[in-house]
Amino acid sequence: MNQKYVYNLLKILLLTTVFSINNLFAQRTPVAGSIQTYNNGISWGTNAQRLSDDKIIVYYKNASSGSTGDGFAVVGTISGSTISWGSALELVTDNIIYAKIVTLSSEKVLFVYEENATPDVYKYKMLTISGTTITASSSAQLSNTAYDIGWQRSLQMVALTENQVVIAMEANIATDSLKVFTGTVSGNTISWGNEVNVASNVSNVSLVRMSDMKFAMGYEWNDGAISGEGMLVAGTVNSNAITMGTPQSFESTSIIGTIGLTSLTESSLAVIFEDDGGTDEGRLFYATLSGTTFTIPGSETNFYSGKSIEDLSMTTLSSTEVVVGINGQSTTTSHYFTASLLGNNFTLGAETELISGNADEFQVVSINADKFVGVFIDDDNVNGVTDERGDVKVFTLTSTTNPEINIQGNSTDIVSGDSSPSTSDYTDFGTGASLSKTFTIQNTGSGTLTLGSNAVSISGTNASDFSVSTQPATSVSGSSSTTFTIDFASGVASTRTAVLHINNDDIHEYNYHFSIQAVGASASVPIVTTTTASNISTTSATIGGNVTSDGGDTVSERGVVYAITSTNNNPTIGGIGVTKDDNASGIGAFSESITGLAASTQYSYAAYAINNQGTSYGTVKMLITSALSVDDEFLQKSINVYPNPVVDELYIDIESSIEVEDVKVYDVSGKLLRTLTLINKKINFSNVYSGLYFIKVRTNQGSLTKIIVKK
């Protein structure tokens, strides 16, 4: 075999392998819906955020009808590829210089803005969402520092949790100093921490959440030695304090234009940027994050080479797929494409034109793994519509093997971020000293949903009143479900509130959370009823009860008590002549079959239940055992037991035709004490304690039970 043949064979094998690997990946193509208009007027400064699996919120400046740039927000409900819009709320009546929104939960959005009346001073409002209705809080200053923004890309915000937000902005226009700080949300107010200086001579900032306590930043750094260098840096948050890692360069040979980051997992992200150094092309690469150190294991993938890029937008569909939106210059159309991670590099789908003509301020926002929206302005009246009209398109993709979390209570969906507890979905537990509710975690996707151990946690004002009694499974396969149970215990007769958190790897709802509440109550003894006796015979009957309430405390024991009425007509545990027969624990109906009764005898009986607060009894009822049968009467006449009461020896006289097989002795609770053999027509009772006993004489012609009193 010559060397050339071996070389060609290896070449064929290599090409075949590459072909096989590439064919493992099938690029998805988004299908665009029709244009959905949110503002049929001049719109600009748009910013959109996902609220939930079927809702988005869009902020925009309305420059029509004399509004002169007033700020508005509107919520849209997505159904298929269409959106129904609620009523837009005017947030600020003064001309807005710049503003942004960030979603804290499905019901709360932070709005930060700079207005014409107070330039260089940032303010914020908290927006509360109910359905498609928006309510805005009063405004408050972001902090005591006046901020300058070099341009709009210098203000970035990200929510780490529903109660923690991080903001990055250019704080001094002279030095382009990049500041970052965090705030803790409580209701409609935010407590801000101290600013941290990241770098000077900075522009084109991007900010992304990595975990509940970590974020990543990308920015263009103009330090004098290298102009337009691309940098990455990570920060960790503890309460309101930020600790920054060491900035790392990812591009030092090109001039960085716009930049964007999106997280894929808690330890990986996609980075996109514009090479503005002559080629005017976009570049995309994959990076990992360990602690605050970045690693770039693959190569940059180039796109849109030689075309005009004004801005870039990127959103995550799954841990291996992103969508990129390209905002062309004022004379250039805008495009979008998907990119999938294969190994350590991205493979790009086809670039598709958003609309015929220019679309400005193009932003892509993922809704779930199979759907995203493109928010844009129909610029320059190119489509014969209102100039600068605010539009949206909904894009759908074929389903993939990704997880999709949904949580239900009482078979009713609970949206992540729900802050209005209801009895209909079990988020309102009701009233009681001890309550319990079970919730279902559904995986409506086809990929495995990972929850991990102890996935459910509790926070909030009265978190200590609630506990997780049963954690869900650590993972849920596609189209399957698991459950978890929350217990409530409180003697405080007022509304107690908390928030449930469900950690999972659904990239769009990684911190599924919702509010719960219950009203406590003082615990009391259980409530129990006595049921009517059944199956009554000469020596046995079935009696029982029903524990209808545990009184707010766990029922540790339940059962029945009974006695011969002439001895004790109000039987209680430990009473004279009383037999106790216990039946497990907890609430609910129960019954017991009691034996060893005397024929033709009236008994008093009642159900009981015990918890830590005490013992309660149901109504006392009566039963009368059946009369003896003919055979019983024969034995009654043929067997004579004496003396009664007895001290030492008990005699049993029988007719010669009857043979005694054995004699059993029971206490009043029906417990068998001993089995005796009749010797010389007598049994020894001298070593038996004083009290009431039953003896059962078993013969070849039946059995006879007698009540014996031992002195």
UniProtKB/TrEMBL annotation:
Q: Which residues does the UniProt record annotate as the domain Secretion system C-terminal sorting?
A: 641-709
What UniProt keywords apply to this chain's record, in alphabetical order? Answer: Signal
Which positions carry the signal peptide feature in this UniProt record? 1-26
Sorted alphabetically, which InterPro entries does this protein's record hold?
Answer: Ig-like_fold, Secre_tail
Spell out the protein name for this chain: Choice-of-anchor D domain-containing protein
